[in-house]
Write a structure and sequence with these properties.
The protein is of the alpha+beta class. The protein is built from 20 helices and 24 strands.
Length: 594
């Protein structure tokens, strides 16, 4: 999910840069398109209102006043407003030459074209682009279909035809009949021979503006010199440390502009004259892009970190964080890591090979937020129910990767479970342990619980179901307190709950005659005891449960159906009727439909 979000944010597009000559001039306007195969269908040309060529194009034209007024109005709108409003525009009075057809096509200025992607100019192909088609319909512009389904008929002149998976070119000169991908390459190659096009890759991602007018952030290590301009601070003077200031609140300018003079002014490394330090600081995302590297070598005062130390500890084994960081912190951290790998500073290119995105905790239908007053503190809950009950509820409330609603009543359920565990452990403390490995249903259940809890924690991050599994085990112990394996099961339950409820687990471990649970190895499941001797099969009649059978896991279907039909409870409900259909889910269910 994160990689998909980052991929979309970066917005890599493969296509071509194509030159359109403004008719009656020596001006060429470059357009980037991902569909050069539709060039023969470009029937008008659109510039973004911010395009630097707009004012030049309309200079002296009758449309000049109208166009410049449109540009002024558009500048007052946000990008979101422009994208949401009905598309409109204004004709410049000028034409561009379609390099494929040689035909003049009108140049418009329209707010649905933005400067932050491509070149701020588009070749409009209304027959195959919905936005262009809506614009063409509004202003009665030509619509010419130039691609069609490989096995179908082309759309009629003036009609819109959405792109399909497999297309061929139509009405495209010598390229007519070619498959669209092949036609795109051929058209670009043809125009390259005329110096009118070239294959190109574009990105939606823009440069990172990392300067901030804040106190808290890394000082930007440059000085401003009247003689030399902007000069980098020498390496032997790095890092530049933040000075202590009396006031770092916003005052309309960067707080460091009011820093003590001995910090603010420093000799220029170039000429030696006094210069002024840069007072903007770096975006704190700069720090969070590599903090995990410094964590490994925090006391190094000679370098940010030492390569050998990094090679020992990193990359990070498991990253846990919110998906809201996908296109900022996580993207920046990956970028920093790749750059440092290129420089030989680290030996890996990905900082976080494994990642888990946790969900949000909601309260009253909204995300918990300190600033909005929709968060809860732990103190009152700990005082009433204990820290372990609170910890268990936080883990048990729902799947870790999904949003959950906080409900105070759930804490009482966790407190009841801990009291039940306390009683079971104290009861079993009076029982002797197993002299030898027993093979009872409870022992098998215990080993199955070890396997499930281990998998839920280490692989699935299913913290809620690992707690549920321990709850089931405790219930089984309570039902079979005299089972030879009951004490073993109780000790295992205490061990398994320790990461989630460490305080009560340590006390119960000691009550069971042991010391320092936190030093013990994690329980291991015996594979030979994980194979179930029997499974429970639900027997239904017309979808309603009428009996439950315990049978061998691999019992043949015919024998399973025969056993189900022979059940006294099932026969009573069927009352001699024959099933018209029998549904069997091996090892789980038999349903007789009558």
């Amino acid at each position: 999910r994160v990689l998909t979000m980052q991929r979309n944010w970066i917005g890599r597009s493969e296509g071509a840069d194509i030159l359109f000559r403004v008719e009656g001039s020596e001006v060429d306007v470059e357009v980037f398109t991902t569909r050069p195969d539709t060039l023969f269908g470009a029937t008008f040309f659109v510039l973004a209102p911010e395009h630097p060529l707009v004012a030049e194009l309309v200079q002296g034209q009758p449309e000049q006043t109208e166009v410049l007024e449109y540009v002024r109005r558009t500048a007052a709108r946000t990008v979101v407003e422009r994208e949401q409003k009905e598309k409109d525009g204004v004709f410049t009075g000028r034409h561009a030459v379609n390099p494929a057809t040689g035909e003049p096509i009108p140049i418009w200025v329209a707010d649905y074209v933005l400067m932050d992607y491509g070149t701020g100019a588009i070749m409009a192909v209304p027959a195959h682009d919905e936005r262009d088609f809506g614009f063409a319909e509004r202003y009665n512009l030509t619509v010419r279909p130039v691609v069609a389904p490989a096995e179908g008929e082309p759309a009629a002149e003036g009609a819109f035809a959405a792109h399909s998976e497999s297309e061929r070119l139509v009405d495209s000169g010598e390229f007519t009949g070619m498959a669209a991908p092949d036609g795109a390459k051929a058209i670009v190659s043809w125009l390259e021979g005329k110096s009118l096009a070239r294959a190109a890759v574009r990105y939606r991602l823009r440069d990172w503006l990392l300067s901030r007018q804040r106190y808290w952030g890394c000082p930007i290590p440059v000085v401003h010199c009247e003689r030399c301009g902007i000069v980098a601070v020498p390496d032997d003077e790095l890092p530049v440390l933040l000075p202590e200031v009396d006031d770092y609140t916003p005052r309309g300018k960067a707080p460091l502009a009011a820093a003590p003079d001995e910090w603010l002014h420093a000799p220029c490394p170039g000429c030696g004259e006094m210069a002024t330090r840069e007072v903007d600081t770096m975006d704190t995302f700069v720090d969070s892009s590599w903090y995990f590297l410094r964590y490994c070598d925090p006391r190094n005062d000679e370098a940010p970190f030492e390569r050998g130390v990094i090679d020992y500890w990193l990359p990070v084994d498991q990253y846990i964080g919110g998906v809201e960081h996908a296109v900022m912190h996580l993207l920046y951290a990956r970028y920093f890591c790749k750059v440092m790998n290129d420089l030989g500073l680290v030996g890996f290119r990905e900082p976080f090979p494994r990642m888990f995105n946790h969900g949000w905790v909601h309260m009253g239908g909204a995300k918990m937020s300190k600033s909005k007053g929709t968060s809860v503190g732990p103190d009152d809950y700990v005082a009433e129910h204990g820290a372990d009950a609170l910890r268990l509820y936080v883990l048990f409330v729902g799947p870790a990767d999904q949003a959950v609603d906080w409900n105070d009543s759930g804490l009482e359920g966790m407190a009841r479970f801990l009291r039940r565990l306390w009683r079971v452990a104290h009861e079993q403390a009076e029982h002797p342990g197993m002299d030898a490995v027993s093979d009872t249903p409870l022992v098998r259940k215990t080993h199955a619980t070890i396997a499930k809890v281990s998998d839920d924690i280490a692989r699935r991050f299913a913290m809620n179901t690992q707690i549920a599994a321990v709850m089931e085990l405790v219930n089984e112990i309570a039902r079979s307190p005299d089972d030879p394996g009951a004490r073993f099961a109780a000790e295992t339950a205490v061990s398994l709950i320790q990461p989630s409820a460490p305080h009560i687990a340590e006390e119960l471990w000691e009550r069971l005659g042991h010391e320092r649970l936190w030093e013990q190895s994690w329980p291991e499941a015996d594979p030979s005891l994980l194979e179930r001797e029997t499974v429970e099969v639900v027997v239904q009649v017309n979808g309603r449960i009428r009996d439950r059978l315990h049978v061998a896991p691999n019992l043949p279907e015919e024998e399973l159906v025969a056993l189900a039909r022979a059940s006294d409870r099932v026969r009573a409900f069927m009352d001699g009727a024959e099933a018209t259909r029998t549904v069997v889910v091996p090892g789980r269910l038999v349903n007789f439909v009558i």
